[in-house]
Structures are given as structure tokens and as C-alpha cells.
Design goal:
alpha+beta; five-stranded mixed beta sheet; about 45% strand; elongated
Length: about 120
């Protein structure tokens, strides 16, 4: 299902891929996030996605014109996962609601891995 808004001039429909890209980009901007993760369910293998593929680490559902977002991330070793997750929740909610005009009902952050980051 796509995101849909009604305005005085008509309807605006936003594809889930667009919503996923916004959410993925907002996530990768957060301190402590190495990147988005793709999980191969069959093999149980997690891999870091390239920047242009961030939407593949995001699941978006639209229910009653409200968004439910699930983010699969890889975090940097040594950072507080709780602090990183809280930062992701705030940043993604703010960015997605501001840019789309749609309400975010729920955001889930799934930490798929930890990576040592070279400075």
C-alpha cells in the first residue's frame, strides 16, 4: 500500500520505495550508524548495504494512512546502542513526517550487527 494524502487540489500518492529511501537516508545520518543492513533470511547472513541501496534495509507499511517503519542497521563498535537507537527514532520520525506530511505511528530499530570503524 502506498502513502496517500488528500489536499484541496487533489490526492498525493507516495510510493513505499520513496518513503523507505527517506527513512534510510535519515538513519544513516545518525551518529554511530555504520550503515543499513540487508538480511538473507534463507542463509541468515547480514551484509552492509551501499549508500545507494539504503532502502533495502527498510520495511515500510502504511496502515490507516499512518506509517510503520522497520530499520535494519549496523552500528559502530563502542557506541551506546540505546543512544544510537534513540537518535535514529527521533531523526527518522522528524525527517519522514516533515518531508511527507504523513504521521509515523511506529518505528522499530533492529540492530543486525556491530562493526569496528577505522578512523
Amino acid at each position: 500500500m502506498k502513502g496517500k494524502m488528500s489536499t484541496q487540489m487533489g490526492n498525493v500518492v507516495i510510493d513505499r520505495e520513496v518513503l523507505a529511501k527517506y527513512a534510510g537516508s535519515a538513519t544513516t545520518e545518525c551518529f554511530g550508524v555504520v550503515g543499513m543492513a540487508a538480511v538473507n533470511v534463507k542463509d541468515g547472513v547480514t551484509r552492509l548495504l551501499k549508500r545507494e541501496s539504503v532502502s533495502r534495509g527498510v520495511n515500510v507499511a502504511v496502515m490507516n494512512n499512518k506509517l510503520r517503519i522497520e530499520l535494519h542497521v549496523i552500528v559502530a563498535y563502542g557506541v551506546s546502542i540505546r543512544a544510537v537507537a534513540q537518535n535514529i527514532l527521533e531523526n527518522v520520525r522528524c525527517r519522514v513526517e516533515t518531508y511527507t506530511g504523513m504521521e509515523v505511528a511506529k518505528i522499530s530499530v533492529v540492530v543486525e550487527g556491530v562493526r569496528v570503524v577505522d578512523d
